[in-house]
Amino acid sequence: MEGVDASAAMVERLRAKPGGDSIPVTMGDMARVPVSGRFWLVYLVFNTLFGLLSQARQAECFGSVARVLDPGGMFVIECFVPDLARFDHDQRVQARSVTEDSAVIEVSRHDKVRQRVNTQMITLDGQGMHLRPVAIRYSWPAELDLMADRVGLGLTERHADWDRRPFTSASDGHVSVYQRA
Q1: C-alpha 178: how far from chain center
Q2: Cα(50)–Cα(76) distance, rounded to whole angstroms?
Q3: Listing from the earlier edge strand, what are the strands of the sheet with 69-80?
Q4: Each residue of 79-116: pLDDT tens digit?
Q5: Are 32 and 60 in contact (CB under 8 A)?
Q6: Per-residue confidence (pLDDT) for residue 2, from 0 to 100
Q7: 31-82+138-180 matches 84-135 in fold
Q8: What confidence score (pLDDT) does residue 147 get?
Q9: Per-residue model confidence (pLDDT) at position 112
Q10: Which pTM was predicted?
């Protein structure tokens, strides 16, 4: 087992977990998969792929994964399925939480052309205003399948979730398994 992460803070969190000290982690760019070994399984979960902010970077990730997979190896991704109905005129404002002492407001803009969503999570409390930006570039499942196919990875399974519920047009997420020929 080996990990790749660009965030020293996330690696620290891993190290604090039981057994976390025994997992080698390479600091680097997940699109370039900066490891030299061969693997039978590579996975990206929690919509991590969408943190790569262009189609080219996402496709680069698929190519880099294919490079390190053993023949027959699997690439597993977990992603949401975009719900563009969330946006009114390509924007959205939502109160995420409101208490006596604070409020968290989510403000988002959707760029249809770039398939990108830029969000600010705004916390208002007694210490002032705190901003937490989040940017993603979403991809449709069929687009991910094409990225995989271009580098020799074929879709073998797609489920709506980790419980293997069937993936349908009503699914709001998917777990997709691609295999190297």
Answers
A1: 16
A2: 14
A3: 39-44, 69-80, 173-180, 153-159
A4: 999 999 999 999 999 999 999 999 999 999 999 999 99
A5: yes
A6: 87
A7: no
A8: 98
A9: 97
A10: 0.92
Residue type, 147: M
Topology of 84-135 in CATH? N-terminal domain of TfIIb (2.20.25)
| Domain extents in the chain | 31-82+138-180, 84-135
3-class SS string, the chain: CCEEECCHHHHHHHHHCCCHHHCCEEECCCCCCCCCCCEEEEEECCCHHHHCCCHHHHHHHHHHHHHHEEEEEEEEEEEECCCHHHCECCEEEEEEEECCCEEEEEEEEEECCCCEEEEEEEEEECCEEEEEEEEEECCCHHHHHHHHHHCCEEEEEEECCCCCCECCCCCCEEEEEEEEC
- Distance, in Å, from the CA atom of 27 to the CA atom of 108, rounded to the nearest integer, reads 30
CATH 3.40.50.150 fits 31-82+138-180, yes or no: yes
∠ Cα 56 174 112 (to 5°): 45
Encode pLDDT of 26-69 as tens digits.
999 999 998 888 999 999 999 999 999 999 999 999 999 999 99
